[in-house]
Amino acid sequence: MTATAEIVIIIFLLLGVFLTLAAAFGVIRLPDVYTRNHAASKSATLGVMLILLACFLYFYLIEGHFSSRVLLGIAFIFITAPVGGHLISRAAYNSGVKLWEKSVRDDLKNKK
Amino acid sequence: MAFQILLNFFLAFLWMFLQVSFDGTTFFVGYLLGLIVLYGMRRFFKADFYMRRVLAVIYLTLLFFKELFMANIDVLKVILKPKLDIQPGIFALPIELKTDWEITLLANLITLTPGTLVIDVSDDQKILYVHAIDVPDVQDAIKGIKDSFEKAIMEVSR
Fold first, then answer.
1. Which sequence spans correspond to the domains of chain A?
2. What is the ipTM of this complex?
3. Cβ proximity of A31 and A16 under 8 Å
4. What's the pTM?
5. Which residues cross the membrane (chain A) (predicted)?
6. pLDDT exceeds 90 at position A11
7. Do A104 and B91 touch (CB under 8 A)?
């Protein structure tokens, strides 16, 4: 019982750390604000959620302590992260940050 | 919908007073019985039986989590690919949803979808401007996904 729980916790933790690392690589490697935002707002969200989930499972299954604050933290990150990504890219667009190689662009014609 | 939930609570309290036992189990039994009563009387309410909407909300939540996982696999593929051959772009997406909270939910859902990120909502709230990380690859597939999202949200709000 404890052994399987430990394995599950380790898997969640490593996956979360790996996703956060991948998000960091994405921020370095991708060419412009918007594509970087893709990496930052998706991978980092799931990465942090998985780390928090592993933390919750560790304290619940190994130590026997049910920490509802960690669950609330997961829920809050899940709700606020996409809104943060949206606002950053919207602010970037409205202050005139150019896209990289563009293919389709409807926004420019219609607005501004 | 809120009225039906309130009525169900009221019936549960009624059951507690009839039983003269005031604890969680009696409340739960009363709530289940009230659910059956409300289901039996569903044709007297204007709105649908509310459990159906609760199920729709649960379905939407599961959809959220599934899309988050798929999006991460997709982004991971783009980041870890040795050659950077993506073609990003912004496209306009007409939507049918009306109220503010439906549009907010759809925008969040799209932001967590593989390869898309909402940049702007038009002033008349009829068009979402979506940034896609790989336009020729994604656009058709995403149209289908979005139809299913809009349908799932309408299922909740109708």
1. 1-95
2. 0.77
3. no
4. 0.80
5. 7-28, 40-61, 70-93
6. yes
7. yes
